Amino acid sequence: MQTEELIPRPTTDTGDRAARLAVTVFPVLVLAAGGIGLALPDAFVSWKTNVPYLLGVVMFCMGLTMTPHDFKGVAKRPWAVGLGLVAHYVIMPGLGWLIANALDLPPQLAAGVILVGCAPSGTASNVVTYLARGDVALSVSVATVSTVLAPLVTPPLTLLLAGEFLPVDAGSMVTDILKTVLLPVVAGLLVRLALGRYVDRVLGALPWLSALTIAVIVAVVVAGSATAIKSAAGLVLLAVVLHNGLGLALGYGAGKLARLGAPSSRAMAFEVGMQNSGLAASLATAHFSPLAALPAAVFSVWHNVSGALVAAWMSYRARRAEQA
Fold first, then answer.
1. 13-323 in CATH: which number?
2. For the segment 247-276, what is each residue's pLDDT rounded down to a tens digit?
3. Which of 59, 166, 254, 279 could form a disulfide with 111 if both were Cys (CB 3.0 to 4.6 A apart)?
4. Which of 175-179's residues contact partners 24+ apart within 8 Å by CB, and which partners?
């Protein structure tokens, strides 16, 4: 869980190296955490109530990496940022609903897949865009605005699309997103503004703090649905691979269709296809069940693996084009 996929983007050379390394190690770390949660469920089940606080830590780290420049980028390119937001909040929720129905998923898993699709962009998308030689400025702008808008967009979309599978308390979900996402992000931004020179010294550690925190969240989620994982794991993995893969492809296609150029189209691919699955896991655990959070936990691992592979391929193609 962008990230979620939630690994803070680079803002200095030191932060850049740490973030790239964290993106590489992150899937392995999360996979190991899931294995521990599956093997020792009793050790983590009682941590369920701490998941929102753990997510708050990750989002606070995201806020610490932000600067006012991120918001200025939105004003400079409103058309491209607006397109990225519309593509993200139309394609991924729509794909979640289609996949849930096409695979005839049980209600808990269907709601979980849809909730992943309704989440904002994962911040790891910024680093993966960099590795793909994409438009990092556009990636940062879309990820930032999609996170800020999440309290207004994610709950009604979830109610609209997942309400046929499970009851959805959209009002309570708005409150939870404000508490676990928006407030920590704003707090982190304010701390960065007030104590910027001190924060710069610890930027290299933030990716690891986020990665470790997300790993704990995944362990808790897996522990909570350990008894159902053996029968549902294959189906959930199929849903996640389809969701992420189609999101990456359609996001890239949206950028090409809008004639944004190759670097911006690469950024669009990751801003659409990579989700804040940490938020999805937290909301699913709080509002549905640990089983509903399983798609988010699997997404946390898979979208970092697929993102790294697609970024490597895009970077190779970009270098070949430059040399031609």
1. 1.20.1530.20
2. 999 999 999 999 999 999 999 999 999 999
3. 166
4. 176/52, 176/282, 176/283, 176/286, 176/287, 177/150, 177/151, 177/279, 177/283, 178/151, 179/52, 179/56
